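Cross-posting from the modeling subforum.

Setting up a comparison between two proteins and wanted a second pair of eyes on the formatting. Protein 1 (sequence, then C-alpha cells):
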Amino acid sequence: MMDWLKSEVHLWKSEGTISDTQLDAILSKYDSQTDAENKKSTAFYTLISAASVLAGAALLLLIGYNWQALNYIAKLGIIFGITIAFQGLTLVARFRWENKALSEVFSFLSCICFGSGIWLIAQIFNLNSHYPDGFLWWALGSLPLAFLGQSSLLWFLVVTLEIIWCFTEASIFSNSTWIFFGRNTNLPSAAYLMPLLLLPGFIWAYLKNCPKTTVLHLIGFACWCLSLWIAWEFNSFSLPLLGALFALYWLAGLTIEIKEKLALVCSQIGLIAVWPLLCIFSFYDFQKEMTERIKPENITSYAAMDGTILFMIGIMIGLVYFKHAYSKNNSKSISSKELILAFAILTQLSMAPAICFFFNSYFAFTMVLISNLLMLGYSAVMMDEGLKCNSSPRFFLGVGSFLLWTIVRYFDLFGDFGGMLGASLLFFLSSLLLIGLAFFWRKRKAAFNVK
C-alpha cells in the first residue's frame, strides 16, 4: 500500500496537482517501510521475551522437581553450570551470530538463574539472613548486564527486583536499617539506596533515547517513594503524596527540555496516573479519615515536609521554564491551560498533608470541593486540547474522565436514592453521549482531512 501511495503522489506531482511540500506532507502521515519493519520486530521481540520467561520457569520447575534427590555438590554444579552456560550463549549470540534479540534472551535467562542461585545456595547451606537483601543482590548482579544490553528486557527484571526489595524492606518495620557498610541506624527499615540503583537505568534510557526504560524507572521511583512513606507510617498521606509525585512527573514532562520521546512518556505517566488518586482524594470520607488519623504522637509533620519538598520542586521547574521562555531560548511549545492544571493539582495534593496537620478537619470540605473542581478542570482541558490539536486520545480522555466523575459522584452522593434504576439510567445516558461524541469526532476528522 505504501508503494502504491508513493507512485500515486509522484504521478500527481508530475501532473502539477500537488507540490513537493504537499507530497512530503501526505507521505509523512503514513508509516514508512522502516516503521513497519520496526513494528514487526517489536512484536517478534515481545513474543520471544515472553517465551524466554516461560522457558526459565519451566527450567526452574524441572530442577525443583528433582532437587531433594541431589547432593550439595550436584546442586552447586547445576546452579553455576546453567548460569555460566546461558552467559556463554549470550556472548556467542552477541558476537558470533550477531543476533541481538537472542543474546538479550539468553542474558535474561542467565540473570534469572543467577537470582535463583542466591536463594538455592542459601537453602543448601541453611543460611538465614535479612531476606530482602536477596532481592537487592539479585538486582545488583543483573544491573551491569542490563546496562550493557541493547533492550529494555533486562531493565524490566532489574526494576521489578528493586520494587520487590523496596516493599519487602518497608514491610519489616524493624526500626533499624543499614545504609552504608551495614551501619545500623534508628531510621525505619526502608530501601534508602534505591535512587542510586535507579540512576544507571535513567542514564541508559537517556543515552539510548528509550521511552520504555524511562517508564519502567519512573514507575520504580514512584514505588520507592510509596514504600518509603509506608515505612514511615504516613498512613493515608501516602496517597496524596503519590498523586503529587505523578503531578510533578506531568509538570516536568511538559516543561523540561529533554529528548522529546522521554519528555512525552514522563508527562503521559503523570497525566494518566494523577486522575485516579485525585478521585480518591475527592471523597469526603477519605478526607475525614485522613484528618482523624492526625495525633500528636504520629510523625505527620514529616509527611507535611515531604509534600512541601514536592511543591518546591514544582516551583523550581516552573521558574526555570519561564526563565527560558522569557529569554526566548525555550523552543518547547506547551499549552498554558495544561501547565496551570498540572501545577494546581500538584499544589492541591502536595500541600494536603501540611493543611491537615496544621488545620485538622476544618478544611476537609474545602479540600473535597477543590478536588472535584480540579477533576472537572482536568476533563475540560483534555477535551479542549484534543479539539485544538485534533488528538482523539486526549479528547476521549477528557470525555471519559468526565463520565467517570459523574458516575463516581452519583454513587457517592445519590446512590442510596436512585438505586439500580438510577444507575441504569445514568449508564444509558452515558452510552448515548459516547455514541453522539463518536459520530461528532468522525465527522470532524472527515472535515479536517478534506481541508
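Protein 2 (same layout):
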Amino acid sequence: MPSHRFSVGQMVRLVTTKGLSPAAAVSYTIEAAMQPYRNSPQYRLWNPELQQGRVALERDLEPVGSA
C-alpha cells in the first residue's frame, strides 16, 4: 500500500484547475488521508475561505510554497 506524502493540516494546491469552475478554490488544507484509489494515495481537502471541499489524488497536489 502506498504511503501518503502530505500530512493532515498541511496546505496544498491543485497542480491543475482544468475542468474546474473559475470560482473553485486552488489551495486547500489536508483534512484527512484516505484509502488509496487505484494504488494512488488520496486526500480529503477543505478551503475554509470559500467553504469548499473536495477529494484529490496525491499526484494532483503540490505543497504550498514549493517552487
